[in-house]
Amino acid sequence: MAKPNLIAGLDIGSGKMTCIAAAQDPETNMLKVLAGRSVPCKGLRGGMVSDIRETSAAVTHILGSIERECNRDITNLYVGMRGAHLESFSNHGTYNISRMDKEITQADMDLAVENAKAMPIKNDNEIINVIPQGYSIDKQRGINNPEGMEGSLLEVDVHITTGSSTHINNLAKAIQRPGYKIDGNFYSLVPLADCVLTQEEKEIGALILDLGGETMSVGIYIDGILKFSRDIPYGCDLITSDLSRLLHTSRQHAKEIKEKYGVSFPTFLDEEGEIPVPSLDGRSTHNIKKSYVLDIIQPRVEELIEQVAHCVETSGYKNFPVVGVVTGGGSLMPGITEHCVSILGLKEVRRGLVQRELVTSDEAFFDPQYSTAMSLAIYAAGGTGYDDYSGASYEKGSSVFGKLGKWLKGVDIFGG
Ligand SMILES: Nc1ncnc2c1ncn2[C@@H]1O[C@H](COP(=O)(O)OP(=O)(O)OP(=O)(O)O)[C@@H](O)[C@H]1O
Ligand SMILES: [Mg+2]
After folding, report:
1. What pLDDT sits at residue 414?
2. Same-domain check for residues 241 and 298
3. Whose CA is nearest to atom 2 of ligand 1?
C-alpha cells in the first residue's frame, strides 16, 4: 500500500526555522505528527531573509533530516511567513447574479472574492492570503456557505494579507534552491489562531497574541471572524538582551536564566534566593538575587504588552476582545497572562496550545515552539475546516496566484 502523503509545515521564525511533518494515520484517519525539528538560522532576521545561502543551508538541514527520519520525501510543503513587511486589511467584494435561475455557484463566490481583491496595494507588495470571512445574500448577513442558495446580490467580507514581493521571492528562492517545491504560503498567524482559539472564543471576541523572539503577532476575532491582524517587530529576545547587558553575561546564558528563573510578576517569585550568573568570558560566576531578575524583566514585559495595547487601540477594535489567548515561546513566562489582563483590559487570558483533537502527536511537539509549524500542517490538511480561501502558490522562481483552497480539494492530500 502506498504511504500517505507527507505534509510539512515550515515556520520561518526570527532566527530559526521550525518544521512539523505529518501524515494521515490509516488506522485512526487522524492527522499524525511523524517528526519535528527546530534549527537556528543566521540567515533570517525578523522573519525575513538576510542571507540566502545560510537560509538555504538551514532548509536543506531541517527538511533533509525530517525526510531521513520519516524515510520518505516531503510531498506537500507549506510555508508560514511572519514579519513587519506583512500587512493585513479587511475588504468587501460584491457580485451580481444576473442569470435567470439565481442559484449561487462556487464560481460566483470566487468572483465575489476576486472583486474583494481589487484594492490598492503598495508598490512591490503582493497578496499572500485572501480569507473569506462570511457572505451575505441580498443584504442578509451571516451566511457561511451560500453555494446552492438563491439570490441576486452576493457580498463577501475578506481578510487580505499582503507582503513585500522582494522578501517573499527571496524566501521562495532560499527554499527552492535546495530543490524543494512550495505548495502554499500562509501568513502564519491565521492557521495558528485557527488551531489555538476555540470557536466560542472567536465568537465572543478574542485577541490572540503570539509572543515570539523578534516578533509579536496580534489578531482580533469578532463574531467568529478575523477582523484585524498585525506583526509588531519586537519580541521576547529584548528581555534576553536586557538580562545580558545588566547581568554582564552572554546572550546564551541570559536566555537560559530567563527561561529557567524568569518571572514577570512579583506573585510568581516563589522564594527569595540567589542564582549563579556566569561572567561574559565564562571563567567565573557571581550570584544575584532572583528578585533582581524580576526587576529587569518586569518593565520590559510591561513595555512589550503596552506596544500590543497601542496596536489594539489603533486597530479600531479596542473594545471588542473579551478574552485573550497568548501563545509562542514568550507565553511560557510566568506572569505574562496577568500583564495581559491588566494592560490590555481583557476579562480572561489563557495560554494557548494547538487543540489536541486536531492532531495526534508526541507530547513534545505540543510545546509552543512547534505550535505554528504544527498549525500549518493541520491547516494545509484541511483540519480546521478553513480550506476555502485563495492563496499564492509558488512554482520554481515565479509567483502565481492560485486557488489554494480548490487546489487542496482537487489534490488527494492523503492519497499515496
Ligand atoms: N520557558 C520560557 N520562558 C520565557 N521565555 C521563553 C521560554 N521558552 C522560550 N522563551 C522565549 O520565547 C522566544 C521564542 O519564541 P518562539 O519560539 O515562539 O519564537 P520564534 O517563532 O522563533 O520567533 P518569531 O515568532 O519572532 O519569529 C524567545 O525569546 C525565547 O527565549
Ligand atoms: Mg513564532
Report:
1. 39
2. yes
3. 259
207 and 346 share one domain: yes
Euclidean distance between CA atoms 13 and 180, whole angstroms: 19
Q: Residues 326, 207: one domain?
A: yes
- In tens, the pLDDT along 304-318 reads 999 999 999 999 999
| Mean of the per-residue pLDDT values of the chain | 88
Pocket test for ligand 1, best of 16, 238, 259 (most atoms within 8 A of CB): 259
Distance 44 CA to ligand 2 centre (A): 13
- Residue 92 grid coordinates: 468587501
pLDDT digits (tens, 9 = 90+) for 130-176: 988 889 999 998 888 899 999 999 999 999 999 999 999 999 999 99
Check if 391 has its Cβ closer than 6 Å to any atom of ligand 1: no
Domain end residue (candidates: 335, 353, 371): 353
Chain centroid to Cα 130, Å, comes to 15
Distinct helix (H) and strand (E) counts, the chain: 11, 20
Domain holding 220: CATH number? 3.30.420.40
Give the type of residue at 9. Answer: G
